[in-house]
Specification:
Number of strands of chain A: 12
CATH topology of the largest domain in chain B: Rossmann fold
Structural class of chain B: alpha/beta
Strand content of chain B: 5-15%
Distance between the termini of chain B: 45 Å
Mean pLDDT of chain B: 96
CATH architecture of the largest domain in chain A: 3-Layer(aba) Sandwich
Order of helices and strands of chain A: EHEHEHEEHHEHHEEHHHHEHHEEEHH
Radius of gyration of chain B: 26 Å
Helix content of chain A: 25-40%
Low-confidence stretches of chain B: none
Largest sheet of chain A: 6 strands, parallel
Largest sheet of chain B: 6 strands, parallel
Number of domains of chain A: 2
Number of helices of chain A: 15
Helix content of chain B: 25-40%
Strand order of the largest sheet of chain B: 3-2-1-4-5-6
Structural class of chain A: alpha/beta
Strand order of the largest sheet of chain A: 3-2-1-4-5-6
Number of strands of chain B: 12
Number of domains of chain B: 2
Oligomer: heterodimer
Shape of chain B: elongated
CATH architecture of the largest domain in chain B: 3-Layer(aba) Sandwich
CATH superfamily of the largest domain in chain A: Crotonobetainyl-coa:carnitine coa-transferase, domain 1
Amino acid sequence: MSALLERVRVLELTDGLPGAMCGKMMAAAGADVILVEPPETGVGVRWEPPFLDDIRGPDRSGLFLYTAGGKRSLTLDPSTPDGREIFTRLLTHADILIEDRAEKTPVVSAENAPPGFNPRLVRITLRKFSPGGPYENYAAETELEPAALGGWMIQLGDVGRTPLLSNSRTMTAFVPGVMGAITGIAAYLSARQTGAGVNLDLSEHEALLFNTRYNETYFSYTGMEIKRHGKSFAGWSPTYRVFDAADGFVSCAASTDAQVELFLQLAGVGLEPFATREARYDRAEELVARLNDWTKSKTREEIFHQGQQWRVPMGAASTLDEVMGLAQLKHRTYFDEIDHPVAGRRAYPGLPLRFDDSRPRSGRAPLLGEHTAAILCDELGYSRDDVAALMNLRVV
Amino acid sequence: MTMKTKLLEGTRVLDLTIFLAGPMPSLILADLGAEVIKIEAIQRLDGFRAYGTPSLASKEAAYERSPLFNTGNRNKRGITLNLATPDGVKLFKQLVAKSDAVVTNFSPRVLPQFGLEFAVLREINPAIVLTSVSGFGQDGPWRDYVSFAAIGEALSGISSLCGYTNEGVVLNGVGVSDFYTGLMAAFGTLAAIREARETGRGRHVDVAQLEASVPFIADAFMEFSLNGRTRAAATNDDPARAPHGAFPARGDDAWVTISVGSDDQWRVLLDVMGTPQWARGEEFATLLKRHHNRARLNDLVAKWTATQNKEELSRELQRRGVPSAPVRTPAEHLHDPQLQATGFFQQVDHKYAGRHPYPSLPVRIDGAYPPINRVGPLLGEDNHYVFTKILGLDDSELARLEKAGVIGNRPAS
């Protein structure tokens, strides 16, 4: 009997955020994820800001603490003969391999498989750009390039002003990671059924482009190019936009006739001049100004709840400190509280999935090499002396 | 090769979803080879059928010509079934008995109104997975509140991170919260299907847009959690790089990104700019100085880039190791050399909409994108197949159901 992904064995050889998130999703759902880390330094994400107390260190990165939750850490240099042998043995028992390193790890294929090798391996490779095109080797040290080429930047910002990237790297970098986890589980199910492994190749560039509002197809159908539109979203309704509140901003998603009419009623604005969709577009400025007069006299909280009670989709623009206190998230105990020997007890974003009313809780991030001895001795049968020797040789 | 891309062949999913976030998980499963049956009612079509059709010269079957609906429901079968009738409920239950999962983004109160809550579905088929996608989740004080992308974005804190420094909120045209929700729902559904195959027991998967949005800004949350700092929107500034952002290029709404994170990259940029006088002084001599003086630096770089072609400039900077890219618009994507080389957009015919490009699922399975075999579906297009081949009804029974308004292929007026 296995819960969700229990007993699915995953090897993760990644340095970047997409691969880290891919493994994180699987670990959160119960898979046994072994993070294979370079001895001494660990994986790249250990060195990504923000750091606890702004002090760099392998166990102090907020992104590592989050993405490595529930994984096990094995330090290993697979480029050495001993390291390669250990890696091959791990691979023999693995269901899924996640990797993003430019130098691909030598992987056993059907042709050179040792006895007992599992031919059902699913191999997920994540890159910034797909091979086979002119961007294949493009330099991208932040999220700017995939976001610019992947259709996200042109959709954020004011008309005529510089297009924007969000001030959160994970908004873009996690998209290919989650996409990798989804397709990885589908491939795992296929491999279990057919007995044949699968290679999956994903790029951040394409993952972002897929996750727009299908703007290219929209353009092909309509000749209309949807681009950034400041506080509003071009094309749906003049009322699908940001309004001012007395203490900040609210977002309104009223776009159907019924929703807009309810909003007008709630705000005490006469329906007559804005009775049709055409009239609302023709007099959009006046419409927005009059609704804004009402919103700016009220707090975000008041507008949010009153709007929602009237079936007008409204949302208070929350700052991060406020999000942690939202009544709905508290009621559903969304955030995880996790102890870590270096970081202490902290709140972490939880898995946004409940299964029969129960939310799987993440374990803590491992210390560098924390599970090396246990994996080598208990699972692969090496002796303590072997492990000591391998450590001296810097294989592990 | 094409057979291999059907990773979920043999998996059947019933799709009771509308708009964007709900149809997304079942779209992913359909692209991966599951047989997804999209269920509408002639009395209540998916609202997305009305979006994106304003400029059509002919209004004939306008509801079949929405680019958003036709893309978001591609590779799915389409049937109509009025769940507000006893016949509709009965047939739906028969389909549940022969399926692996049901995905819905109806409000939490709707399925129980039809007598189709999870306990009932599980009784019919113990292995069934029910994925409920909603704004705020299946319980809690905000359970019945409604959400769309802009709402999830605002409440989750995403809006607070997107915008120009100290200027308030701008909306993401991408509708990020819808996609984040759809991705999480797809993952949750597959994890539950895997478990059901092991144990014979399905799960009710509860996915809330507000919650699904939060992990995607985990870096900002962890900064708050570890150091108590509340991050906010900051235009395109990066603490370790300058210049860093999108700069104007020659042409209408043309922009090019430049990202300089080392002295070597700065020297290359200087060389490409022809080492202007302004760039030689102390003001921009080190990374830290460039960062401190980034407002002036960005202005000066922008004056120069405004005279440049974004394609040529980004290629030249990339050739010399400086991260740079043209900011692509939707129309440009269709001619992007990388996407053309990989065949990312697939051209597909549709009875009413004609031939158009559609984005592939962004994964190559043993080297090939999953094929897009059909887009749409047309309203009730697969009624005959589903009700006769899967449920074994005969034609006279279908005619009766159609007459009673339980099924059909034209919207009820």
